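Lecture notes, unit on protein representations.

Consider one protein chain, 490 amino acids long.
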Amino acid sequence: MNAFSRRGACPALSAPMQTGDGLLVRLNPVAGGISPKSLIGLGESALRHGNGIMEVTARGNLQIRGLTAESARLLADEVDALGIAVRTGVPVETGPLAGIDPEENADPRPVAERIRAAIEEAGLTPRLGPKVSVVVDGGGQLTMDAVTADVRLKAVGAGGDVLWSVSVAGDGRSSRPLATIDADTSRDIAVAALRMVAEKGREAHTRDLSERQLISLASWHSVTPLSVLPDISPSRGEIGNSRAGSPLSALEIGESRGDKAISPLEGEMSGRTERGAQERQPARSPIALFSLGSNTALGIALPYGSMPAQNLIDLASEASHLDATEIRLAPGRALLFLGLSAPSSLQTSAATLGFVTDPTDPRTRIAACPGTPACASGRIATRAIAETIAKQSPCLIDASLTLHVSGCAKGCAHPGAAALTLVGDENGAGLVVDGTAKALPAAYRPGYDAARGIVGILAALRAQRHQGETASACLTRLGAAGIAELYRRN
């Protein structure tokens, strides 16, 4: 195994990443899921070699924390012994129910595999930054709409045929549509877009492509694209269409000369939306029971994406006793248990162990990194603060309101803006209204008393909301200065 990676390399099993509480590895099983026995084995390895904390990320990857260089090597050996194959290279992600959901428009896995093969054939993996990703969404009960990607393909019905809508630079709402075409052409457009990104360097994404390049990609399905190479390559050659006789593997459009890695910020934690995942909930929460024809899948989430390994071991053991055949990781920090003989029994056990079993649980509305004492970068006890807020104001946090509790200004758990953000620094727990953890706080309280300030704000929102008004709209109406004053005095 390689020495642990520089900041900027993705924390794969073969290249652990240094964080505020030791080394971190992230696992994405090739098979899409693992057996209860394998999850138990991973939990035992996390106890032996890490700090005993396991996580499911916003994009649905498994993480093990608190490793050392030596213990990470031992962990990798044990993962191999368990027979768990993990993905490497540019992430080409499919939904957690891919291939088994009777409601999906198409099985996305064959298209995803063709894209992975084309990326490797074109030699793009070392030329793309670690945050570049592709989503292939077959639709169905659990979509990938909340997950951002550089390139996204989504299956759409067309009179009995299946076409693929291709868009770039965003999630299901914000990405820019390019074309709706057949599977082969969608693969060609996806790989061509990644080639263009590679030519701009390892810090580039599809959001950095020029208008001319985007027009070229959108025209791919009908005519040979306009030359985009004056924008991205000194060769001034043409990008060919593989369907027109020029295979992608033969398309040389210049070599990437940038070798600079993107540097994730120190203190990256479970909440960090790695590769740009958004913190909004999917159209349907993964915390539910899904019908799969003759089978079912029960979704259970980890609070704030994190749990002691022993709790996961206990949950997987109970699932095994209830005949679970497979456990799949899901965006939204969830686990999907397939084949259970008694789903309600596992729900009860999960709730007792501290897992999230109700999609309306207020903890699903709060993003919180580990903070102190788990992370060396943290200044406040984020999880304790978040738990207090959730317990004291369970009915005051609606879907319109996002809360972020950050141990430091890095904002690992929620890089984007939130309605209310608590951030720890040398002055205590600062409050940012409608901003990120990097913004200048409008007011401060001692860290140990921060939860009381937020609970006071939420109580004021409840008292002053107009009929039919959301908490977020009320917050905007009261204004940042008024909210800051409520935080200081409550």
